[in-house]
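ARCHIVE CARD
CATEGORY: sequence design from structure
SOURCE FIELD: tokenized fold
FIELD CONTENT:
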């Protein structure tokens, strides 16, 4: 069986204490309630050490014969006035039984031996769990119920604030720490209980005929009245035992003597007293602090420069303690209904009525409880609220709980500040209202604050809103307030949570007409203003770019027309003479024709601007949202002057139209960009951590068919490699998966999969390993018995493969003909014996280098004018440059692990290797290990795991450097300075290397990369280039679509090329024919220079017709 603590306490989330609730139908097993008929007089109960007796002998005998060992009045302080029909609250009693006595038989025996009105089980009740106040920004509930807007109905800046003197918010709970700095000035002081001597002594310090709690405390301090001898002068000295303020006179005749600032309906074991402070020495943030937390939400002093704000702004707290002190750590609410009765009477005898918050509940229907509620509502005009529950009932979350379920109680459900239902709280069609109940900041015992979850927190948010409504309409009664707060509730929560219209009960059956989240989210702004004020909102807006780069995204330097639709919301006042002005505080935007007039808009009507408002963004605008302000002046009913500004965020961004493209998981796979379906447009291909291969159109929309997205069955870490492997005219996509399979498919479907029986997480490489015209595929396993695999175009193993090297291979390979036999070999790095090794095309292998720690970067190969170097980064904090014979030509020592693979680029005719390190630095070294001027560059964002890509973004004949770090895309100039407008901040952490391509064919390039939640594409505005002197930049992971990780430096002498001179030797001859034939047969990737020099017949394709023409021209030469 769960301990009481486990039932009450939910979970600790970080610094936020989440107090849960036992809100099940739980009843006491040693007490019951019974009610005498109205013809019986209230009992006089006499007690001594021998037991009890009552002044009704027949009933006395019946009680003792029933096994009752103790008896007490259930509602102390109730009188004959306190009734609900024939149920008189002063005739309801709690009977105690010996632990061995059977409850049901005792109740039955009593009913059979004395003519009582009824006997019933007693339910067990448990707690449920911008002003200048520093924590105001952490109080999402204030904005959620629109209190911040409602406050504008007063002129608070000019000290016209809500009058809360008669707004009495009662916390019937575990007591309130009324000395808390944010509560002590908001306490209700019972004016009629202040003794005459105190008034004569000048306790009314400002002489306004009203004694506030602040005046009481200051008077105690001035007079040095340490009545409880604790060495502290505060409000505890006002109500403590022995205090002179307790004069034993019931000054207001409400039945509760000396209730100066509230009432303790429980005491230690049930004896009432005037001090509603929580149990002494209780934990500051335990369950005994529950009532203090509730009280802060109800009426913490607002705009006092301390802690928090409250929705009611300036209301008063009636503290009612209803938990008995014998419960050391986890109190129940033992006397909640006695507390409700006290609160109702306190409000009534104070000349107004109370709004009574009950953040607790439990048990089923009770005649006695229902009578208390009806008495409070009908006799004393109280508004009674209760939390609907925390979904803890074992039978399910669909429940009608009590007291929330009684007719004259507003049942309040807990919901997120955003309006999303968290699917943890109780729901039911009997719920009246929804209010924020997640991460609600409020006061706790002492001087502190904490954020708690629970319907306990939702209920006082609703109660405080009713308090603010009462402050605006002080003459309204409880029925009017209840009707208005329900009628004005915002139903948008059902747009967010449609499953709770006709919700499902605990058996999964649909509840007909069951709006199970209540009438909507509390909206106190509408509750106050709907009779006299219009209420405008921006329904939608749109932009049409008039000057830009041709897409629909607003970039710096663009001009556009702005259109919007303005709604006067339904059930508000008609608006007249509406004056609209549009402006912005942002100097980077200019606005033409910003003013216009609308004669009127009735409630529920809309206005759409038919002419665009002209706006222009400056060239130097930052990449952020520009905030547009729509200022509205209008007249409502009764000549109410409406003056409000609405705000619209205009995104100024470099994102390509249609991006970011949302994914359902992380994208480690760097996108490969190519026209995969021969439609003349590039597509973006990538895999994700859910195991799907995706293809996006250039506008970010996914290609969806019976093939794509393709499910590989497990995570994809590597990038897709692409080439026409089998020469069938269709490009093939090659992907590895942790499902232990390699997959090959084209746009038409799967061609084959290969089961390696090893995890595959590295990028595959497409290469030419033999003499046939088709291409091969190489990849490695991530296993202690890892193999190097090589497949033919039909999925069969290449001769002598797989090669067992018994090593884990983390990332991809590099390929190059290292032994000069005309076929490509495979270079591998390992995460085991920490090796760089080469596996030759015939399956033989050779270890080139062993490092001092593992390799988790791919090898990269450069041919720099005949010098072959293999680069690989190690966890021994070095980037190694190794020759094909295993000689370490140099190594670059960094300050942390090197996960980033080397990428190559040429600057001023010299080749450089770029890579990152976990030390947050980007390094650039030449082929002698010497740094490029201006490098390394410290980024300072933590580990640099991804690799670097290059392109000439601004056509200045120098490459720019792109890399993703943390949640940012960095672009740097070749000299190490930052490129204009970069870095760009993404929504999610970057997880893949960038791919740079002109995906939309507009002459400027896009930078595409994967993140942990999106694929992003940044549109660089300047006209750029992806190649230089005919040589394509290393613009993606592993340098090219085949993922070979190989780079050959340019022939910089080819400054004046001729068509057909493919090797740039100034002659067109048979060597050029051979190069052209190989280019056609092997489907090599073609740079812009390749296309220009090879496409002799100018048909935008490189094929056999170009060979025929080249042969003809050579003969002609």
């Amino acid at each position: 069986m769960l301990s009481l603590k486990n039932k009450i306490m939910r979970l600790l989330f970080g610094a936020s204490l989440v107090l849960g609730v036992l809100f099940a139908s739980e009843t006491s097993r040693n007490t019951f309630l019974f009610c005498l008929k109205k013809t019986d007089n209230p009992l006089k109960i006499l007690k001594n050490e021998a037991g009890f007796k009552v002044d009704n002998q027949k009933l006395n005998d019946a009680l003792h014969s029933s096994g009752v060992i103790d008896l007490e009045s259930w509602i102390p302080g109730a009188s004959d006035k306190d009734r609900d029909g024939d149920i008189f609250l002063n005739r309801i009693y709690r009977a105690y039984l010996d632990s061995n006595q059977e409850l049901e038989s005792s109740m039955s025996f009593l009913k059979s031996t004395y003519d009582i009105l009824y006997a019933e089980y007693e339910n067990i009740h448990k707690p449920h769990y911008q002003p200048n106040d520093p924590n105001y920004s952490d109080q999402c509930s204030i904005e959620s119920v629109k209190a911040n807007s409602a406050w504008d109905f007063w002129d608070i800046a000019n000290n016209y604030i809500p009058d809360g003197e008669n707004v009495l918010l009662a916390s019937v709970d575990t007591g309130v720490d009324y000395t808390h700095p944010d509560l002590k000035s908001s306490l209700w002081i019972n004016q009629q209980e202040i003794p005459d001597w105190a008034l004569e002594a000048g306790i009314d310090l400002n002489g306004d005929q009203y004694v506030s709690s602040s005046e009481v405390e200051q008077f105690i301090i001035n007079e040095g009245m340490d009545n409880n001898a604790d060495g502290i002068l505060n409000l505890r000295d006002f109500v403590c035992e022995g205090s002179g303020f307790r004069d034993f006179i019931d000054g207001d005749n409400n039945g509760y003597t000396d209730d100066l600032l509230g009432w303790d309906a429980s005491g230690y074991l049930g004896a009432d007293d005037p001090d509603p402070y929580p149990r002494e020495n209780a934990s500051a943030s335990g369950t005994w602090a529950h009532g203090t937390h509730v009280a802060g939400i109800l009426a913490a002093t607002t705009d006092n420069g301390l802690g928090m704000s409250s929705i009611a702004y300036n209301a008063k707290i009636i503290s009612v303690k209803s938990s008995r002190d014998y419960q050391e750590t986890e109190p129940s609410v033992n006397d909640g209904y006695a507390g409700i009765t006290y609160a109702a009477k306190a409000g009534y005898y104070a000349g107004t009525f109370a709004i009574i918050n009950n953040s607790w509940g439990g048990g089923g229907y009770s005649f006695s409880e229902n009578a208390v509620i009806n008495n409070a509502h009908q006799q004393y005009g109280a508004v009674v609220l209760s939390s609907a529950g925390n979904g803890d009932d074992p039978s399910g979350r669909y429940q009608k709980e009590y007291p929330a379920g009684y007719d004259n109680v507003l049942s309040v459900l807990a919901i997120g500040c955003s309006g999303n239902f968290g699917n943890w709280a109780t729901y039911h069609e009997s719920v009246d209202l929804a209010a924020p109940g997640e991460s609600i900041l409020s006061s706790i015992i002492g001087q502190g604050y904490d954020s708690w979850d629970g319907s306990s927190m939702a209920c006082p948010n609703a109660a405080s809103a009713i308090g603010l409504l009462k402050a605006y309409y002080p003459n309204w009664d409880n029925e009017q307030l209840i009707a208005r707060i329900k009628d004005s509730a915002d139903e948008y929560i059902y747009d967010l949570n449609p499953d709770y219209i006709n919700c499902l009960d605990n058996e999964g059956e649909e509840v007909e007409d069951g709006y199970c989240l209540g009438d909507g989210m509390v909206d106190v702004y509408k509750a106050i203003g709907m009779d006299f004020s219009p209420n405008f909102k921006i329904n939608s807006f749109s932009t049409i770019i008039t000057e830009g780069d041709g897409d629909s995204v607003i970039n710096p330097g663009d001009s556009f027309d702005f259109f919007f639709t303005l709604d006067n919301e339904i059930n508000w006042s008609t608006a007249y003479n509406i004056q609209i002005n549009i402006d912005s505080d942002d100097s980077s935007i200019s606005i033409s024709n910003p003013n216009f007039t609308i004669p009127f808009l009735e409630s529920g009507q809309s206005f759409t601007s038919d002419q665009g408002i002209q706006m222009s963004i400056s060239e130097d605008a930052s990449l952020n949202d520009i905030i547009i302000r729509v200022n509205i002046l209008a007249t409502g009913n009764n000549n109410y002057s409406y003056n409000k500004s609405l705000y619209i965020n205009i995104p100024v961004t470099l994102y390509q139209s249609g991006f970011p493209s949302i994914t359902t998981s992380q994208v480690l796979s760097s996108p490969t960009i190519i026209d995969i379906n021969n439609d003349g447009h590039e597509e973006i291909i990538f895999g994700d951590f859910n195991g799907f291969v995706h293809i996006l159109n250039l506008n970010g929309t996914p290609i969806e068919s019976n093939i794509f997205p393709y499910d590989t069955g497990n995570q994809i870490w590597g990038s897709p490699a692409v080439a026409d492997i089998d020469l069938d005219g269709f490009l093939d996509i090659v992907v590895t998966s942790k499902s232990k399979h390699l997959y090959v498919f084209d746009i038409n479907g799967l061609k084959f999969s290969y089961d390696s029986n090893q995890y595959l997480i590295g990028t595959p490489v497409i290469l030419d390993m033999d003499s046939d015209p088709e291409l091969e595929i190489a990849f490695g396993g991530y296993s202690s018995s890892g193999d190097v695999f090589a497949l033919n175009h039909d999925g069969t193993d290449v001769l002598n493969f797989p090669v067992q090297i018994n090593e884990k291979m983390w990332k991809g390979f590099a390929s190059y003909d290292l032994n000069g036999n005309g076929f490509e070999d495979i270079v591998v790095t390992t995460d085991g014996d920490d090796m760089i090794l080469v596996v030759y095309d015939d399956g033989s292998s050779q270890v080139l280098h062993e490092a001092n720690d593992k390799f988790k970067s791919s090898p990269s190969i450069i041919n720099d004018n005949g010098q072959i170097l293999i680069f690989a980064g190690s966890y021994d904090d070095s980037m190694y440059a190794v020759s094909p014979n295993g000689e370490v030509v140099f190594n670059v020592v960094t300050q942390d692990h090197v996960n980033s693979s080397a990428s190559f680029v040429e600057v001023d005719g010299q080749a450089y290797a770029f890579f990152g390190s976990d030390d947050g630095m980007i390094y650039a070294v030449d082929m002698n290990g010497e740094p490029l001027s201006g490098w390394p560059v410290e980024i300072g964002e933590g580990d640099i795991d991804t690799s670097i890509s290059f392109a000439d973004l601004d056509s200045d004949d120098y490459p720019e450097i792109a890399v993703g770090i943390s949640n940012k895309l960095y672009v740097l100039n070749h000299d190490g300075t930052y490129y204009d407008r970069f870095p760009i901040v993404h929504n999610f952490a970057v997880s893949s290397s960038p791919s740079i391509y002109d995906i939309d064919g507009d002459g400027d390039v896009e930078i595409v990369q994967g993140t942990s939640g999106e694929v992003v594409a940044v549109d660089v505005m300047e006209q750029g280039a992806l190649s230089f002197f005919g040589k394509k930049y290393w613009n993606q992971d592993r340098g090219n679509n085949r993922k070979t990780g190989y780079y050959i430096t340019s022939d910089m002498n080819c400054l004046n090329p001729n068509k057909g001179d493919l090797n740039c030797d100034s002659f067109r001859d048979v060597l050029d024919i051979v190069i052209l034939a190989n280019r056609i047969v092997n489907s090599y990737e073609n740079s812009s220079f390749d296309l220009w020099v090879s496409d002799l017949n100018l048909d935008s394709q490189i094929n056999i017709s170009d060979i025929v023409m080249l042969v003809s021209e050579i003969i002609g030469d």
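CARD ANNOTATION: The chain has 18 helices and 65 strands. Residues 1-25 have pLDDT under 50 and may be disordered.
SHELF: design records, drawer C
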